[in-house]
Amino acid sequence: MLNSIKMVDLHGQYLKIKEEIDQAISEVINSTSFINGKPVESFGLELANYLNVKYVVPCANGTDALQIAYQSLGLKPGDEVLMPAFNYVASAEAAALIGLKPVFVDVWEDSFNLNENLIEGKITAATKAIVVVHLFGQSANMEPILEIAHRLGLKIIEDNAQSLGAEYTFSNGAKQKTGTMGDINIHSFFPTKNLGCFGDGGAISTNDKDLAQKAAMISRHGQGEKYAYEMIGCNSRLDTLQAAILRIKLKNLDGYLQSRKEAAKYYHQLLEGSLTTSRPIEKGYSNHTFNQYVIKLTDRDKIKELLKNEGVPSMIYYPSPLHLQKAYAYLGYKSGDFRVAESLCQEVLALPMHTELLQDEQEYVINSLIKSINSL
Q: Which of 23, 106, 150, 223 is deepest in the core (most CB within 10 A)?
């Protein structure tokens, strides 16, 4: 057994840029500008440039970014927001906290992303927005979703927490990065993301000046001029230390994405010909940044335990769909309402994936996986 295969190797990634990171941290400490220091503004401008979007508003985390996005759009209690049933809880949680009604939509079995063909069947007079989550590192099919939204007067929020750097290709050949196509979009810099800081961090991106101004105001207590509160807001700031770290890592992001792509390609090769294991699907309209490398298995839970016994870590994203979570029982959904999401929650398994993954580690992971499958 190889020593200590990691699900994510943040320490190894840090060591490669240690000198730059340590210097950036030291500069912030020496400046004592821990809140709203210059690196925060600089990072926002640099991320906007990377995304080719007009405005970026840094904030404390991706969940805050969602709430701020909802508020910036002027959504009111009782308004309905469509979102995928197979997803992390943040999009539903942030909506529910401000009185919005999450309305779930099933997903595609192969890409795990929102099934655009099911959207119109969920729209009512109360529907005001669609949260499009780009899951595991790949874009949802944005062109038809944008068409529906424009035709019906709905707002689009892209949840780009897991897919920073992914690129969508429209039918006319035009390309656009995820997190730039919606009315307002959110990003997370949780340490395990494609671009991760050393704690919590998030951002909002938009091409709408008015929405950017509202988001910035909401993130600082609804404050325009100091002590002049124009709207109900919250306290959601990106720490200067985290911004300084993110500035260094943003310069390395394309390299990180290339490392993930190469690791995924080798996993694909190792799994070639497997009849019992699905490989992640790369859709023709999007590249894949492989924030996660997610396969589907029968007997998933047994195999996960067998892998653990072999020293191979793995994770289940996600063990239960949102509509069956206790916190959202008040919405009235039941088992069977979203069959694809429910099925995926019984089958998906994420294998180790990170920028420092070695081929001999991947070989051990897949050999252990095949051994575990064959033992059942």
A: 106
Structure tokens at 370: 């095949």
Q: In this predicted model, what pLDDT tens digit does every residue of 89-119 receive, in sequence order?
A: 999 999 999 999 999 999 999 999 999 999 9
Closest CA to 177 of 48, 51, 49: 51
Cα gap 206→225, rounded to integer Å: 22
Residues 6+ apart with CB under 8 A from 283: 110, 111, 138, 139, 141
Asked whether 140 and 113 are in contact (CB, 8 A), the reply is yes
CA-based nearest residue to 188, from 68, 80, 350, 270: 68
pLDDT in tens, 352-369: 999 999 999 999 999 999
Any idea which fold 10-105+112-251 has?
Aspartate Aminotransferase; domain 2 (3.40.640)
- pLDDT greater than 60 at residue 1: no
Contacting residues for 91 by C-beta, under 8 A, at least 6 apart: 66, 81, 83, 102, 131, 133, 159
> Selecting from 3.40.50.300, 3.30.1490.110, 3.90.1150.10, 1.10.1740.10, what CATH number does the domain 253-374 have?
3.90.1150.10
Rg (CA), the chain: 21
